[in-house]
Amino acid sequence: MDIFLILYILSVFSGTKFEKKPKHFNSKYFSFEQCNVLKGVFAVLVVLHHISNQTNSGIIFNCLYHFGVFGTAGFFTISGYGLMTQLNNKREKYLKIFLSKRIGLILIPYSIFFVVYFIYGHFTNGLSIINAFSSLYNGNPIVTNSWYIIAILYLYIQFFINANLLFLKNHKILFLISNIIAVVVYIFICRNLHYGMWWYNTPHCFLTGIFLAMFENKILKFFKKHYLLILFGNLFFITFLYILKYTTKRGSTPNYIITLFFAFALSGIIPIICMKVNFTENILMKNIGKFSLELYLVHGLIMDILSKITICHQNELLFAALVIIVSVIIAWLFHMPINKLCSLYKTRITVKS
Predict the structure, then answer these.
(1) Which of 102, 42, 85 is nearest to 293 (CA)?
(2) Pairing of strands 277-278, 17-18
(3) What pairs with residue 277 in β-bridges?
(4) Short-list 190, 197, 176, 204, CA closest to 249
(5) What is the DSSP string of 69-89?
(6) SS3 278
(7) Residue 98: what are its φ and ψ, rounded to 5°?
């Protein structure tokens, strides 16, 4: 199984360019192109993480069991940064169609996969429509791993409200505080509803992206001045927290608190690495990044189907290989019509505005 992790690491750094000179930094560190590649990187990481949860082979592959948070932490960081950057640049114009655009572009693919999962669940387990819709709020959505979709919708809505009430009135610090409160409320609700810890151990990384975009110039200036110290200090912090996380009982309160800081440290290392590494020429991850959402949503279904096939159940290498290959192909096939629908939808709401 370790071969998959090795191949993944090689694919991540394929075609990358490094700024080797001490005072030279990547000007596209968090550009749209860079973030698109990162989406591909994080999507594949999430797939590998979920595979590691169902396999036992490999010396280092099972470490991914503890690094699944890196994938979702990355997604939340990119989302927060993207929203805040657009808000900084476009302000009222951006918020005018914010909800219809952002939520619509999530609900279109999610609705399609919801129907697909319902059909599969209905014919394999007798899933009813009532149970399917109740899964959206009982902590166990039928679309595997789609807790992320529900979380990001919540974050988008509260971001929109806070932006209108506070940011546009130049109450930037209150805007940041209100976003922090909203995340704390989300965590409180999830914990009290007894949702799985994965629901609420990374959404706070959304704040990392917001904070980075709000104070970007000052942060970059400080990072450039003390780059190596910050880089190695962050890596040391990540290693220290990983050891603590590994040695505490999964699901316990201490483990959760450690995981919160672990995810936060991982979200912080992303822009730090991107300041020196240009991923934009990574063709493989650039293309996967285009359908990263579809890959995220479909791979759970593929895993469930393949796990019921005897030969895949008996051969973990075959199971892992097929999950990756089939998930990528199916995600790409879904992306084509979904992308067309989303393009038509964006055109319609833009014309209306």
Answers:
(1) 42
(2) antiparallel
(3) 18
(4) 197
(5) HHHHHHHHHHHHHHHHHHHHH
(6) strand
(7) -60, -55
pLDDT number for residue 351: 67
Spatial distance between the Cα atoms of 190 and 308, rounded to a whole number of angstroms:
31
Contacts 24+ apart (CB under 8 A), 60-67: 60/2, 60/5, 61/1, 61/2, 61/4, 61/5, 62/1, 64/5, 66/242, 66/245, 66/246
Q: Residue 18: helix, strand or coil by DSSP?
A: strand
Domain spans, the chain: 2-9+25-352
First to last CA, the chain: 51
* Rounded Cα–Cα distance for residues 141 and 189 (Å): 16
Quick: pLDDT tens for 298-318: 999 999 999 988 888 788 889
Q: How many Cβ atoms are within 10 Å of 16's Cβ, its own excluded?
A: 15
Tokens 């036992």 -> residue = 56
What are φ and ψ of residue 73, in 5° steps? -60, -40
pTM over 0.90: yes
| CA distances for 80 relative to 36, 118, 120, 280, 340, angstroms | 14, 31, 33, 20, 25
